């Protein structure tokens, strides 16, 4: 006999006793209050193969943003997950993983489209070996994890050509944006990879000096570019490292 573990949704919600008798309206009503303007609907219902449960996909939508959530029902109760202990399988986890792949695929598509028109002088390039793949690194001069990643740059260059795109997170403020602009400006004057790496190390050092001679107008324009990167949905934090072929960057 297949062994299944059923999770509880906030508290299990009792409805009618017949299988699949829970209506769409009852399912929607089971949700706690959600932010104003969010529309909730039942997008899909189907029997969960080889079980006595129904799989229900809930669509939460506001303007052009969508989020899908999975629920399960035996006709009387609603549950957030069904776990097949014999197969070590969580149906909710599988659904979330599938949704994540869909979201990232769309995000990469959006990012590739953005980078086709992204200012080339805002991308710092390292490596010109045509035999090596390209790695795109989204980074922030004030991010401690990015600082750590920067220490690996020599090793990464042994395996790939690198394209650095600066995407400071908002909490790091204008200093991170100004440093990004300074790196871009100085890198454009560099003639060798070693010179660019020296510039990066200077601004990523824990005791680095603040950027200077960066205007408010430059910072505001850079912020708009940074916002456009995060708006694609492909980058959710830094450092983020993506294969160039996945976003059409050479």
Automatic annotation (TrEMBL):
Protein's UniProt keywords contain Isomerase: yes
GO molecular function, one term: isomerase activity
Record's keyword terms, sorted: Isomerase, Signal
Taxonomic source organism: Candidatus Campylobacter infans
Protein's name in the database: Protein disulfide isomerase, DsbG family
Keyword DNA-binding: no
Annotated InterPro entries: Thioredoxin-like_sf
Entries under PROSITE patterns matching the protein: PROKAR_LIPOPROTEIN
Signal peptide region: 1-20
């Amino acid at each position: 006999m297949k062994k299944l573990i059923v999770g509880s949704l906030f508290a299990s919600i009792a409805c009618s006793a017949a299988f699949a008798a829970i209506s769409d309206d009852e399912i929607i009503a089971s949700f706690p209050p959600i932010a104003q303007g969010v529309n909730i609907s039942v997008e899909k219902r189907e029997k969960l193969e080889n079980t006595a449960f129904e799989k229900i996909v809930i669509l939460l939508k506001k303007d052009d943003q969508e989020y899908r959530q999975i629920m399960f029902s035996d006709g009387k109760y609603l549950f957030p997950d069904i776990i097949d202990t014999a197969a070590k399988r969580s149906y909710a986890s599988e659904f979330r993983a599938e949704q994540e792949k869909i979201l990232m695929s769309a995000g990469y598509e959006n990012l590739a489209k953005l980078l086709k028109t992204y200012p080339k002088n805002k991308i710092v390039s390292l490596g010109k070996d045509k035999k090596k793949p390209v790695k795109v690194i989204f980074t922030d001069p004030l991010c401690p994890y990015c600082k750590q990643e920067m220490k690996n740059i020599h090793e990464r260059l042994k395996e790939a050509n690198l394209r650095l795109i600066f995407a400071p997170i908002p909490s790091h403020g204008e200093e991170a944006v100004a440093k990004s602009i300074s790196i871009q400006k100085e890198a454009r004057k560099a003639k060798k990879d070693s010179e660019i790496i020296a510039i990066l190390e200077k601004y990523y050092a824990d005791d680095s000096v603040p950027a200077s001679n960066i205007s408010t107008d430059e910072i505001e324009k850079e912020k708009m570019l940074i916002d456009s990167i995060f708006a694609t949905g492909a980058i959710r934090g830094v450092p983020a490292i993506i294969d160039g072929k996945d976003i059409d960057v050479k």
